[in-house]
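Hi everyone,

Forwarding the result from last night's run.
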Amino acid sequence: QGGPMLPYRDAVPPSHAGKRGRGVLCSPTETPFPLPAPGRGAGGPMLPRRDAVPPSRAGKRGRGSYAPPPGCRSPFPPRDAGAGEGGGRCAVVGDLKVSRQPVRGVIVSGHLDSWDLGTGASDDAAGVAVAMETAQLMQQLHLRPRRTLRVIAWIDEENLGRGHVAYAKAHAAEIGNHVAAIESDLGASHPMGFRAKISAEATVRLQPVLDVLQPAGSNLIVLSSDSPEADIEPFANQGVPAFGLLQDGRTYFNYHHTAADTLDKIIPRELRENATAMAVMGYALAAMPDPLPR
């Protein structure tokens, strides 16, 4: 907006700026709403758009092109979020085991970490809650699938993904025992279906499941050539059928990665709809006689 721009590879993260005698550039967030504090982007602080100063106006305030707007000082000191032994690498894992094929399993998941300054209600506490409720619903309804349901609350998704990297490394010899992986990481609005990295044959096999989800309006399958979510990428890359809940994302970025991403933004009815969609798909994948083809 009126000022010079750098290729992404040439940009200097704020954590390194101080070491080079530079200030910190605060760029605008994607939300149009006034927020009480800066958000944080992929490498530095971000401001609501109404508070951001275009570079073309910075000179009128006696600043250089990259001077921050009034009151914008980086609250993010240089650090490695995973520093220290085991830092940023632990995921929370719980199994709902069965007797018929206990070593084979379906992953249902969300990620536990969130951005600085916010509680991360929609990104991604809601995803963790939905995954946990999937297991709870199976228990409550006395459902006994053929395969184990594994609930995972991933860690470090927002930084370098060391949680899923460590899990994939620790379970490398067992990748074949994972028959599917699901993650919810697009908020908590109404689920329209799933993004999926699956084969055409698998799509046909899932039609009865989609028929069950149709009355709830959660029966879309959008095929993807890449992993539908970040934390299940190691499984998708190995051919494991991978699914990401496909929520109505029209309001997701209103509070995304800001301090305003709090529980009051979550609509309980829509959160229940997400849990229902994941539970139906999770149970179907864990209960079908033969796993989906890879």
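The mean pLDDT is 79.

Cheers,
N.
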